[in-house]
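thread from #wetlab-drylab

HS: before we spend reagent money on co-crystallization trials with zinc ion, can we at least see a predicted complex? here's what I'd submit
DV: go for it
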Amino acid sequence: MLSNTEKEQLRSVLESARKRLAKVGQSALNYSMNHERNIGRDSIDESMEEEIFSTEMRLHDREKYLLGKVDRQLVRLRDDVIDVCEDCGEKIAFKRLLARPVTTLCIDCKEQNERQEAAVEQPGQGAGLDGGGLGEVGAADE
Ligand SMILES: [Zn+2]
């Protein structure tokens, strides 16, 4: 079980991500113009920004996808199950959640999942999604 402090930390990360994604959805151009104002966040947000910023071509689909995941995590947070792996029910480490706030799988399940995805995914499709702190969300783990 996460402490209240930990939950608050995750909540603020998710909510700032949510706000940003909503903004991106309104206008990619507007987003890039506002980019300067958002500097000063922690590294998670920055890597998310870079990730989004560098993939403007598919910004809207990606933004929608991420927004859905962020929303789902906020529900999981509210229900006090954000640190419970969806697959095996084991605890997800807080550090992992902080590094990958939209993850719903423990590291073991995620690795297994990624191996399965690697087998079915078309070559090149996930290119460029693995470098950022939110690289995991590029994977279709639904
Ligand atoms: Zn698991």
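DV: The chain has one domain: 4-105.
HS: ok that's useful, forwarding to the group
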